[in-house]
Amino acid sequence: MPTAAKLVAAILTAVLGYYVADVIVPHLPEQDRDNYMRETSAFVGLLVGWRFLGWRVGGGFRAAVGLGLSTALVLFVAGMVTFAFYEMIIRALRKSYKGPFEALEGMMKIGIENLEYVQHPDVIASLVVGGIIVGLVTEIAARRWS
Q1: pLDDT, tens only, 25-67
Q2: The whole model's pTM is what?
Q3: 134 with 53: CB under 8 angstroms?
Q4: Would residue 56 be called left, alpha or beta, if left means φ above 0 and alpha means ψ between -120 and 50 degrees?
Q5: Is residue 102 a contact partner of residue 35, using CB atoms and an 8 Å limit?
Q6: How far is residue 81's CA from residue 84's CA, in Å, rounded to a whole number?
Q7: Which pLDDT tens digit goes with each residue over 84-100?
Q8: Where are the domains of the chain?
């Protein structure tokens, strides 16, 4: 059921996803900077905000901070899985894998390799601070419009 809290959570988490992707892009290799990382991260954020955060708020501001941090973590993991899956599909279409299990193993390796680009302090700080802000603002919206 659509609620104001779900809408606010979806929009704010999409903005957070876009912003964090924008912070990550300068850390990427030159050939990977022209992809649709920002837009894809915003879409993943939209889904995470609606499905994960939107219906959980309403338990107070302390809980909202925890939910915001949890949402940032879910956004990070979902984004990493999404981009690793995309790269695995690209490599599979180039016939880099012998079978589906090797492709899944390759996806895990790609995800681990991608951790190199997100372990910078500005990326982590953006996720933490942004997650807290998203949680608190969503809690305020839930109190105001519920």
Answers
A1: 888 888 777 678 899 999 999 999 999 998 888 889 999 999 9
A2: 0.91
A3: yes
A4: alpha
A5: no
A6: 5
A7: 999 999 999 998 889 88
A8: 4-76+120-145
